[in-house]
Amino acid sequence: MKRLIVNADDLGADEARNVGIFEAIQEGRVTSVSLFPNGPAFEDALHRIRLLGRTTVSFGVHLNLSEGKPVSPDLRLLTGPDGSFLGKTSTHSLLMRLGDQALEREIVREMSAQIKVLLDSGIQIHHLDGHHHIHVFPAAIAAAVRIAQEHKVPWMRISEEHLPQHATYSLPGGLMEEAHRFSEIARAARQHLKGTGIFTTDHFRGLYLKGRLSSATLNDLLQTLPEGLTELMVHPGRAPLAPLSGPFSSFSTQEREQELETLLHSEFRLALSKAGVTLTPFPEDQR
After folding, report:
1. Which one of the listed residues 9, 10, 14, 129 is annotated catalytic?
2. pLDDT reading at 287 higher than 80
């Protein structure tokens, strides 16, 4: 049986992003979402979730150590002089560091604080993942597992993905190298889940679709989808009417609108049917 979780990342980044994600939810194309606990539009996201009422959509935490302001005060290693996170590149370099107990304590403190933001808002957390995949990096994976166990979060994203063989997936060289690197880091992180009671999907897709989600790539993905449970990471959204400013200002773009329109297109439903793929949220029964 082929089951597919379509998970929209970055809910709470800005209101335009939220609008697009909820369009996809309402049309039944997105079955799961990941929320930014420190996103500028987090409260707007909560409001929209409450308006949904009873829903089968699964909600997760999108742990963030790389962009914007932290939830915890007085972080010394994860932030710069202005109190903001260090950005994608610098944070990734920092999180490759092993054996730095002070760093690991800061990671645990901030991850715990971000989880608490969601729980205090009444969100049941079905799954855990990370902005820029930070949760699988060497200095962060043990903390992510510990936090998931403490708060009984049953699912964790392991973004390990084999390189697709289809021409429609082609990425510019730098992005291809980045996707391969993230996959290798996730592969090493997988061992940390053994014996923890935390589950991950059988397969993951989306690293090699960054900025390339179209009807053609989506059809290729569905036609080659293996048996079992797969998570597809997507980033749909609407572009804002006026330019935004701040660390999250580049999140909602025409590229995101393209992803949204691809998911909303009737060809997606047809492709699912032809490939024999069933959409699902993260299962409650773990498998």
Report:
1. 9
2. no
